[in-house]
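STRUCTURE:
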């Protein structure tokens, strides 16, 4: 089971909600993956989904909120026989009307209310209800990438006004969601690990949140170790390259004018470097008859390089 499916499975089993929160969650589910059809003077509500967690959640919320058992049927895809589709229906016109009115999806005149802002939507006035709405939206049309691979959370909407409303809900919780148009859909998404972690907490996916955070911590530690190793490797390579150039310069002085022509302080450092090509500057300083600090050793090695360059260019020190 994917991380996204595990998260939805967890959310589908959340209980002990207030009725107003269940109404808000139902509103999101019907808006994002339900179909409201007008039949004569009444309405019917049908939910189509291939995710059993979504089907279970919708059925449970309808039964608990309205004390009504909707019809349930299953079909299989004509081409992909393994895919089972669930259809949960409310065909009873009076019950469908009651549900839609309670969810504020139709007005007193029976007109569908599709384009409505958070401010005007009575089912989204409480913070807890806004959390429930986002939970329903994710269950219905959301997905989350396995954090081992990438950080990506999205909710796919068929209407722009729904995408705007979901983005505004994220904004209410201090999360900067963005919208991108993908084919004919409006996709609300988050790509930053901290914001996805906050979202899992907001919608009540606490087990998935712990798993997500564990992966984040391991990835951060792994990346930190890799950066440190790469930095140390780069420093080692830099030190080795510098030592190789120093030895080349000293060997050149030795083979041309001779190290005996150098001042004593430079000659001691030159011999120390030849004797231990891999020694660090601090170690070289400790090897001298008169111990010298790191900066002092570095200064004398630079002087030796300068002398070697003068010999190459002018034939003398």
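SEQUENCE:
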């Amino acid at each position: 089971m994917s991380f996204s499916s595990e998260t939805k499975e967890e959310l589908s089993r959340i209980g002990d909600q207030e009725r107003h929160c269940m109404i808000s969650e139902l509103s999101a589910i019907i808006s994002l993956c339900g179909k409201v059809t007008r039949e004569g003077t009444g309405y019917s509500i049908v939910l189509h989904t291939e995710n059993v967690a979504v089907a279970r959640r919708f059925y449970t919320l309808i039964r608990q909120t309205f004390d009504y058992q909707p019809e349930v049927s299953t079909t299989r895809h004509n081409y992909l026989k393994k895919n089972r589709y669930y259809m949960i229906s409310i065909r009873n016109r009076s019950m469908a009307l009651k549900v839609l009115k309670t969810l504020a999806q139709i007005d007193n005149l029976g007109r569908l209310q599709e384009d409505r802002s958070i401010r005007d939507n009575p089912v989204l006035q409480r913070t807890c209800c806004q959390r429930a709405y986002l939970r329903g939206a994710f269950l219905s049309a959301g997905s989350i990438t396995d954090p081992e691979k990438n950080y990506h959370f999205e909710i796919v909407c068929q209407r722009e006004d729904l995408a705007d409303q979901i983005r505004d809900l994220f904004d209410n919780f201090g999360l900067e969601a963005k919208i991108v148009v993908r084919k004919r859909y409006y996709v609300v998404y988050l790509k930053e690990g901290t914001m996805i972690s906050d979202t899992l907490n907001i919608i009540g996916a606490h087990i998935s949140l712990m798993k997500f955070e564990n992966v984040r911590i391991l990835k951060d530690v792994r990346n930190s170790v890799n950066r440190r190793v790469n930095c140390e490797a780069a420093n080692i390579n830099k030190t080795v390259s510098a030592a190789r150039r120093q030895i080349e310069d000293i060997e050149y002085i030795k083979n041309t004018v001779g190290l005996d022509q150098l001042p004593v302080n430079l000659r001691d450092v030159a011999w120390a470097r030849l004797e231990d090509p891999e020694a660090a500057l601090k170690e070289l300083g400790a090897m001298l008859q008169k111990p010298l600090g790191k900066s002092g050793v570095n200064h004398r090695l630079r002087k030796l390089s300068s002398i070697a360059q003068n010999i190459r260019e002018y034939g003398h020190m």
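REMARK: The mean pLDDT is 87.
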